[in-house]
Amino acid sequence: FSALRREANVGVAQLDRLQGLLVKRQQVELETTSAADETISLNSVVSAFADIDKEIRETLGDAGYAAYLQYQKTLPQRNALELVAQTLDYNVPPLTPGQADQLVSVLTQFPTKGEGEVAGKANLAVLFSSPTSAGTITDEAIVAARGFLSSDQLRALQLTQRYQQAQRKLFAQLDQLQRAAD
Predict the structure, then answer these.
(1) Distance in angstroms (rounded) separating the CA atoms of residues 96 and 92
(2) How many helices (H) and strands (E) does the chain have?
(3) Which residue from 78, 110, 106, 82 is spatially nearest to 94, judged by alpha carbons?
């Protein structure tokens, strides 16, 4: 929330209220996903989310709400940033807030094919696909990051990219094995 606080001048009380509303949103998600599919009305779920979003907008104001939406939109990239930060060695200076913002921007600018293509589709799976997974680090993003990351920080970015690639390959193999077993 520090980025939201910096960018939209949102106060501590507003952030506390936002946190409560996000918990409320998660509760709606959990209740809906745990119910039988036939008892779920897409309209009621959309209405519940709209009510919560309205409360968030009232809590943060227009500028704060716009910053919140941008923050939500870039969560995959921010999660990738966290992976990179975790990869940094203790001997390497951490990313500065400016570098972190630039890296999120670069990762947003160079997504892999398929990232962000679900927008606008109205189904429950899309409603609950909160962007908690890490955004993919592309070769283009690494090239662009050379302009503002140190060599050690860039190496951490490349290691994170290799980790993501290995993870995707593993999940693809597991998916193939599962399909063969079915």
Answers:
(1) 12
(2) 8, 0
(3) 82
Spatial contact of 53 and 45, defined as CB atoms under 8 Å apart = no
* Segment 92-96 mean pLDDT: 90
pTM for this prediction: 0.67
Which pair of tokens denotes residue 58?
Answer: 């009232």
* Sequence-distant (≥ 6) Cβ neighbours of residue 123 within 8 angstroms: 42
Give the whole-angstrom CA distance, residue 56 versus residue 99.
Answer: 29
3-state helix, strand, coil in the chain (%, to 5): 75, 0, 25
Q: Residue 35 CB: number of other CB atoms within 10 A?
A: 11
φ/ψ of residue 139, rounded to 5: -60, -40
Distance CA 3, CA 97 (A): 9
83 and 49 in contact (C-beta within 8 Å)?
A: no
Q: Identify which of 147, 148, 164 has the alpha carbon closest to the alpha carbon of residue 111.
A: 164
Q: How far apart are CA 7 and CA 73, in angstroms?
A: 15
Round the average pLDDT of the chain to a whole number and report it: 81
Of 118 and 21, more confident: 21
d(CA 124, CA 111): 24
